[in-house]
Structure formats: C-alpha cells, structure tokens
Amino acid sequence: MTSSSTSSKVIVAVTQAEPVWLDLDATVDKTCALITEAAKNGAKILAFPEAWIPVTQLGFELTTRYTQNSLKLDSPQAAKIKQCAAENGIVVVLGFSENVNGSLYISQAIIDADGEVRLARNKMKATHMERTIFGDSFGDCLDSVTDTEVGRVGALNCWEHLQPLLKYHLYSQKEQIHVASWLPVHKDVPEGALESMSHKGNERSSSVQQLALEKLMRNWVGISAIAQVYAIESQSFVLHSTTVITQPGLDLMGITRGPLMSTPGGGNSAVFGPDGSKLSVDIPEDEEGIVYATIDLDDVLKARAFIDTCGHYSRPDLLWLGVDKEIKRHVRDL
C-alpha cells in the first residue's frame, strides 16, 4: 500500500450497531448487510465489536441458547461471511463468540479481501464476569497481527488493551491498522462503577485560559483514552468498534437493573490516528451506523520516526519481553 505506484490512502469503516440478539443466522445476515454497505461507500476494511455474534456476554441462565447461537469457524454461517467479504473485496475483522466443541471463547477473525481467514485468535483471558461463560486462550493468541490487502492489521478485545505486556507484543509485530473490539461503552456509569468502563469526557471549564488544554484533553477519559494511547504507543491507526444496546435487547438479557450496560446506548465507535487524533465523526451513542475515515498509511512512518517503542526508541539490552506461544493441549502424547 505504501509503494510509489500505489496510493497509501485507505477508507476505513467501523460498525456501531446492534446484533440480532441470540440469533446466529439473523446476525450473520446483518453482518453481510453491513459489509456490503461499507464496501459500497468505498471502505477497504470494516471492524466489528467484541462478541458481535451472537451478542455480548449474558447471564448463566441463557448459556445453552448462547452456545447454540455462537459461531463455529468451519460452519456455513462463517462461510457466508467470508464469501461476502470476497464478493465485496473488503477486509473484515469480525468479533464473535466462538463455539469450539461446546466450549466458548471470545474470538476475532481477520478475513482478507479474498475471503480467506488470515488470522483467528481468542481473547487471552476473559474479563471478570465473562469467566463464567468463556475460556482462556492458548499460546497462539499472541499472533495477533497479519498481512492483508490493506496492510498489516492486528486486533485485540476490550480490556486486553489494559495488558501492557500483551500490547507490547503486538507493537513488536508492527501493525499499521489496529482493531479494538469493545462491548457497549456508555458515556456515563452509575455511582460506584469504574470510570474506565465509560467514555465520559472532561467537564467543560468556564476558564478562557484553559480552552487550549481542554481541546487537548477532551475524550481522554475512560475507553477513548485507552484507544488514543494505544494508537500513539503502537504508531498505528485504531479502529475502535462498539455495540449499541436498545431496550428490547436489555429486556432479553435481563440486565436492566445491573450496574453496567443496563441502559440503552453504548455506541462509541471511532477512528484514531497514530498521533492519537480522532479522524472520524461521532454517531450518537444510541444510534446505529458505520463510522468512516480516510487514513494515510504513510502517517505510520511519520509517527515511527519519532516514537518506535519496539525499534529505535527502546533498550532491549535493559528491558525485554519473553513470550511462550506453544499451544498446551489438554491431552498430550509423551
């Protein structure tokens, strides 16, 4: 993409949508509709949120139905999504609950523009209440970056972006575009909940002298801050994708009284540049749509000329990361 004969500019797209709750086939159809829409608008890559298929995590009482509607990578439903990506010539980064012989994993697949899966990974460790439903990944989850039609693309789920060592390992793989897949991210959280689960912005100051500082700091709280910092540290473009929840979805999940994700909304999708700047226009948090931005991959080179955390701006003789990517099987022949 960055050769002298090829434009380095790419239109990227990020979904901010609601799945068809606990309906695998219907959500696959909606996935294909979003892929087609993004491609028609010129996008060359489309990012989906965490566990887009079939929905974000649920209570234990819905586990059987949830498992039945989780995606298998060798299924006709997965084949349909891959075919749609190929027909539209677009890279798709899909977030889904993966059903592996009845065990569930929070997974991501990077599907290239030819419909081939270049990379499939599981979330390294399920977060908090997710552990009642989802299992931990294997060593191959660390290979989270791959070459695609639009360049080197990587992906992580949700609070994996708070794992410093995991992030550093991705930085070493030199991604150009990073997909950050998240659950619904509301602007505000109830009293007593973690601000890091929201995208609440700074309070507006009445002081004229602080206007410049306010401009710099706006959106640097909670999830937005995580995405922006990741972009700067990795010198990559971040496609930050979130799910929207409506009242019918809340009623189905039975979480209307919970401390998190218990009200309609949650949309916070955006595109950030390698310098942390927001490149996209926001969609209201309770509305569905696709966020677009035109990026220039040469900006990655510009950023890395200043900061390359796994290159010239590092000291591996002093600090280094050890990695074990071996897959530890449950049953092994000795």
Automatic annotation (TrEMBL):
It comes from the Eukaryota. GO terms for molecular function: hydro-lyase activity; nitrilase activity. Coiled coil: none annotated. Keywords: Hydrolase. It catalyses: a nitrile + 2 H2O = a carboxylate + NH4(+). InterPro entries: C-N_Hydrolase, C-N_Hydrolase_sf, Nitrilase/CN_hydratase_CS, Nitrilases_CHs. Gene3D superfamilies: Carbon-nitrogen hydrolase. PROSITE patterns: CN_HYDROLASE (PS50263), NITRIL_CHT_2 (PS00921). Residues 10-297 form the CN hydrolase domain. The keyword Transcription does not apply. Belongs to the carbon-nitrogen hydrolase superfamily. Nitrilase family. This is nitrilase. It comes from Beauveria asiatica. The lineage of its organism: Eukaryota, Fungi, Dikarya, Ascomycota, Pezizomycotina.
